[in-house]
Design goal:
Porin, mainly beta, about 10% helix, twelve-stranded antiparallel barrel, about 45% strand, about 350 residues
Length: about 350
């Protein structure tokens, strides 16, 4: 009996060992894989490619810093600028015509003297214009005037002598209706204030309202056309009382002004350009008075004046420009016979 029991126990032990042998390789492989996983270094994180830096905008190159080339016609572009201008005029025979240049006589004995034959003058203008918006600007111009009247001899004592001082200050607003690289159409509202002494030939002794329409049109890469049309409307003026008892009349009157000026960039380099410009400017006097020959006060209504102005502007890439020109009266009625003008302008 004991022998049977021993045999059964041995058979059971053998079956148990045989059943455990197939699982051993799998466990060893699993343990090896676990050890391999534990010993392997963690995978390296790949760095994301750096983001592309935004390209810096290139600074704008101003190719037309001073687009306007005219020297007598008011410029149409609305801009921030300073300007210094000097005029030297010769042979102005009727400076009191419609009180456009200086005040006339009221007919009293105190303003009757020697007969003025002609007048030479010089005028220095200081102008500042500021444009807080692309299409809007305000400007102020302060002029200083010097006059040298020439009188017919042996006809009494002159009432106006050579001298100088501040003339009539001007101020106004500009509003661009159209503004592009090739075209500019601007409405200008100006006013003149009687800051000059009219009795000394330095001003008109009255206010004036001066609306204008200004045009700039580029015709090609090198050529442009500029034009203006406007009116000087007096507010007040000297009342003339004739000695013959005729009805009193106002010396001042409306004066219309219009002009056109083509220009051409004859020389153009990276840093500068030289542009000749020809301007034709005309005035029409609607009324008022003027002192004629033999000191006779007569009507100025219907008088037309035509001037030609020839000059050139040198413009630099930093916004500075210089102008020099010559103007001459072409009609029998003139404001002056000859006028020389030089100007410096800086546009910001």
């Amino acid at each position: 009996m004991k022998t049977c029991t021993v045999i059964v126990f041995l058979l059971f032990l053998h079956a148990t060992v045989a059943a455990q042998q197939p699982d051993a390789p799998a466990s060893s492989a699993a343990n090896a894989a676990a050890q391999s996983t534990a010993q392997a270094p963690p995978p390296k994180k790949q760095k994301a490619p750096p983001a592309a830096k935004p390209a810096r905008p290139k600074p704008l190159k101003r190719t037309n810093i001073d687009a306007t080339m005219v020297g007598y016609i008011d410029p149409s572009p609305v801009q921030t600028q300073v300007r210094v201008r000097f005029d030297a005029g010769f042979n102005a025979p009727r400076p009191d015509r419609a009180e456009y240049f200086y005040a006339g006589c009221n007919g009293s004995p105190s303003c009757k003297g020697a007969i003025q034959r002609t007048l030479n003058f010089q005028e220095l203008y200081l102008l500042g214009e500021y444009a807080p918006r692309e299409r809007f600007s305000a400007f102020v111009q302060v002029p200083f005037r010097w006059i040298q009247p020439i009188f017919v001899p042996n006809t009494g004592q002159p009432t106006i002598s050579s001298g100088g001082g501040i003339s009539d200050v001007q101020a106004g607003l500009k509003l661009a209706v159209v503004a592009s690289g090739s075209r500019s159409l601007t409405v200008q509202f100006g006013a003149s204030f009687p800051s000059g002494d009219g009795s000394a030939g330095l001003g008109t002794n009255h206010f004036s309202f001066e609306p204008k329409l200004l045009l700039f049109q580029r015709l090609s890469d090198r050529s442009a056309l500029e034009a203006e049309a406007g009116d000087s409307h007096p507010i007040g003026g000297t009342i003339y009382f004739a000695s013959d008892g005729a009805a009193p009349q106002n010396f001042a009157a409306d004066v219309a002004m219009y002009g056109v000026g083509p220009s051409y960039a004859l020389i153009r380099r990276d840093g500068y350009s030289i542009s000749p410009v020809l301007e034709v400017v005309s005035w029409h006097v609607f009324g008022g008075l003027q002192t004629g020959s033999r000191a006779v006060v007569q009507s100025a209504a219907g008088i037309d004046v035509l001037n030609a102005k020839l000059g050139a502007r040198v413009s630099f890439s930093n916004g500075s420009s210089f102008y020099a020109g010559y103007g001459r009266g072409l009609t029998s009625d003139i404001w002056y016979r000859n006028l020389f003008r030089i100007e410096y302008r800086r546009v910001f």
